[in-house]
């Protein structure tokens, strides 16, 4: 009996070695409110902060967080920032807050968060903690009564490629990695302690209309759309310049290959002539010749990220347009009455 | 303790008309630190940060718990902790200064005076917020106090805590939605369209209510209330008067604009998927 139990325990340990994939991010209402407060107060400046919580099986719990001071570009400040972080963690531990970093949060403007910086930060965090997540909050959308909170992580296959820094066509094809596979969104759950739940139920106003209803029914979506379109156009320009880079690369590549061909042709006729004359043939490869130097292929990372952003803007525009359709029809119905 | 009985002893400073406004994050923070309080601790106390506007409204925007020890008639506050935490918070947001302190439990207790004195040295006229986490009266009571010294001549007699009005409306919480803040577990955040749907349903329900009320009054089932009648007529008159032709024009223009936008974004998306196929296709070279 004991033997089987021991074995099953061993088995259990063995199976636990393989970490279950991260399925859900469970955020405490406190963390949600703190993030919103910090991001909103400093909007439109972009801010970041640290997430604290626990890693429980396939659920990552975020129970608290603290903001980072806005960074200034100074070397001195970097050490200062690290000090601040340590101090804050120490202080929070003293009042029994979970003392375990699980990622970071940042604010964004209209969802334009897909940047190289984000990926770099993520890789940095990933090195230190096995499981980390990035919470993105968009304060500009909260004015429309939307809670724009997202939990993101990078996919494993992307991280693999990033570590080897191999964003060339062949590798990407091999891995079947397309731009959709860079970021992975994880569903968010919100949990509150029973105490909070009791307080909020008590304090909830009786009025049937709350602020977010009023925000949602606002008819003016023009500024939001305009900015979205502006960003979309910018991204399109970036994308086309990336495309130009590729075209340039391919042109160079084909020119080089043509040069190589003519050189080889020449060498071969020369060799035939030498053979006829009874001399040793010359080698068909000449590494010292500049036309054999391979041209580096530009990385596709940027164009992937830009594509991601474009897709994001398109989604936002579609979503907002869909909403304003329904709002307009509602308005029409009201007017007809 | 906090009462309005006026005797000649009382001296009310000119700032009696102060009131306080609380940000929901403060309440969440207090509750969280109470849940995480050390073993055997009766209550948690901490510092309140925020700002005081010119007309005497104290806005409580942030808070942090401060560890303390309490015995029969002694209170030991970790002042070092309080200072480091305050400096850290200042780095993030220099505009938030100390405005007072909080404690859990109902009403003002004996040790409170000592702590209040400490905070009076940090900031003039601090506010004291109590959060009744025990629900002693069966209800959630949040109270806010300011303190006055009662003195006779030069002699200090006592300190009086006077309750000040506390604004609990918490617009911020409304924006997030009480639905996700008041339940213990929410499995999924509502997305744009679901939120819209909920809002429209609520609007419809409201309109139905008004209809029912008006019908009821017309049929004589309900007693008419002039105030409600005025509200309804105000609401109706706030609708802009537009002739049907103009309205149709505006409406159609907006619809067309939206169609154009949808078309544009779908076009861009199609282009993206084509580009995707071309970029990752096997090279012919």
Distance between the termini of chain B: 89 Å
Order of helices and strands of chain A: HEHEEHEHEHEHHEEHHHH
Order of strands across the biggest sheet of chain A? Answer: 7-6-5-4-2-3-1-8
CATH superfamily of the largest domain in chain B: Cytidine Deaminase, domain 2
Q: How many domains make up the coordinates of chain A? A: 2
What is the CATH class name of the largest domain in chain B? Answer: Alpha Beta
Q: Gyration radius of chain A, to the nearest Å?
A: 28 Å
Give the averaged pLDDT of chain A, no decimals: 79
Helix/sheet category of chain A: alpha/beta
CATH structural fold name of the largest domain in chain B: Cytidine Deaminase, domain 2
- For the record, the CATH architecture of the largest domain in chain A stands as 3-Layer(aba) Sandwich
Total strands of chain B: the figure is 11
Share of residues in helices of chain B: 40-55%
Number of helices, counting only DSSP H or I runs of 4 residues or more of chain B: 8
Strand content of chain B: 15-25%
**What profile does the largest beta sheet of chain B have?**
8 strands, mixed
Question: Pairing-aware structural class of the strands and helices of chain B?
Answer: alpha/beta
Please explain how this structure is put together.
Chain A has helices at residues 2-17, 29-42, 75-94, 116-128, 139-142, 156-164, 169-175, 194-203, 211-216, 222-276, 301-336; strands at 24-28, 48-56, 59-67, 101-107, 133-137, 149-154, 183-186, 188-191. Chain A has 337 residues and is an alpha/beta fold. Chain A has two domains: 19-154 and 187-213, Cytidine Deaminase, domain 2 (3-Layer(aba) Sandwich); 235-336. An eight-stranded mixed sheet of chain A has the order 7-6-5-4-2-3-1-8. In chain A, helix 10 (222-276) packs antiparallel against helix 11 (301-336). The N and C termini of chain A lie far apart (77 Å). By secondary structure, chain B is an alpha/beta fold. Chain B has two domains: 14-174, Cytidine Deaminase, domain 2; 188-280, no CATH class. Mean pLDDT of chain B is 79; it is low at 1-15.
């Amino acid at each position: 009996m004991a033997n089987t139990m021991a074995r099953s325990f061993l088995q259990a340990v063995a199976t636990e070695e393989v970490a279950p994939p991260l399925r859900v991010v469970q955020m405490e209402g406190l963390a949600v409110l703190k993030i919103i407060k910090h991001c909103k107060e400093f909007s439109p400046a972009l801010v970041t902060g640290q997430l604290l919580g626990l890693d429980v099986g396939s659920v990552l719990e975020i129970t608290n967080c603290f903001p980072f001071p806005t960074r200034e570009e100074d070397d001195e400040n970097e050490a200062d920032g690290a000090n601040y972080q340590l101090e804050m963690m120490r202080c929070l531990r003293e009042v029994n807050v979970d003392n375990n970093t699980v990622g970071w949060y940042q604010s964004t403007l209209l969802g334009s968060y897909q940047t190289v910086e984000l990926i770099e930060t993520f890789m940095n965090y990933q090195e230190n903690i096995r499981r980390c997540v990035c919470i993105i909050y968009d304060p500009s959308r909260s004015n429309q009564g939307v809670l724009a909170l997202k939990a993101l992580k990078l996919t494993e296959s992307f991280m693999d490629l990033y570590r080897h820094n191999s964003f060339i066509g062949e590798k990407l094809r091999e891995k079947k990695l397309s731009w959709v596979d860079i970021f992975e969104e994880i569903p968010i759950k919100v949990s509150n302690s029973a105490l909070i739940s009791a307080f909020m139920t008590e304090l909830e106003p009786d009025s049937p209309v709350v602020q977010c209803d009023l925000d949602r029914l606002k008819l003016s979506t023009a500024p939001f759309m305009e900015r979205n379109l502006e960003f979309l156009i910018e991204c399109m320009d970036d994308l086309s310049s990336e495309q130009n880079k590729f075209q340039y690369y391919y042109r160079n590549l084909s020119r080089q290959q043509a040069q190589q061909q003519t050189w080889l042709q020449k060498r071969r006729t020369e060799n035939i002539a030498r053979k006829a004359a009874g001399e040793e043939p010359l080698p068909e490869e000449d590494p010292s010749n500049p036309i054999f130097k391979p041209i580096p292929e530009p990385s596709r990372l940027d164009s992937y990220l830009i594509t991601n952003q474009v897709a994001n803007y398109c989604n936002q525009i579609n979503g907002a347009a869909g909403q304003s359709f329904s709002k307009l029809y509602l308005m029409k119905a009201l007017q007809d009455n | 303790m906090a009462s309005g009985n006026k005797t000649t002893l009382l001296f009310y400073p000119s700032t009696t008309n102060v009131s306080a406004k609380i940000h929901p994050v403060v309440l969440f923070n207090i509750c969280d630190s109470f849940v995480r309080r050390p073993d055997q601790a009766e209550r948690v106390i901490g510092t309140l940060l925020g700002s005081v506007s010119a007309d005497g409204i104290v806005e409580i925007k942030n808070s942090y718990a401060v560890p303390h020890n309490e015995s029969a008639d002694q209170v030991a506050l970790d002042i070092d902790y309080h200072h480091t935490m305050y400096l850290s918070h200042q780095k993030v947001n220099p505009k938030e200064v100390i405005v007072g302190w909080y404690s859990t439990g109902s009403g003002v207790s004996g040790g409170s005076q000592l702590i209040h004195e400490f905070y009076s040295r940090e900031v003039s006229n601090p506010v004291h917020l109590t959060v009744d986490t025990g629900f002693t009266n069966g209800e959630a009571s949040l109270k806010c106090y300011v303190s006055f010294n009662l003195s006779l001549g030069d002699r200090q007699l006592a300190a009086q805590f006077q309750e000040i009005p506390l604004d609990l409306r918490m617009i911020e919480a409304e924006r997030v939605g009480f639905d996700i803040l008041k339940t213990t577990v929410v499995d999924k955040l509502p997305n744009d369209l679901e939120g819209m749907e909920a809002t429209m349903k609520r609007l419809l329900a409201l309109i139905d209510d008004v209809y029912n009320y008006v019908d009821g009054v017309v049929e004589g089932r309900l007693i008419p209330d002039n105030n409600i009648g005025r509200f309804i007529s105000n609401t109706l008159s706030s609708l802009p008067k537009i002739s049907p032709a103009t309205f149709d024009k505006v409406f159609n223009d907006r619809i067309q604009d939206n169609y154009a936008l949808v078309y544009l974004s779908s076009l861009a998306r199609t282009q993206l998927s084509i580009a995707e196929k071309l970029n990752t296709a096997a090279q012919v070279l």
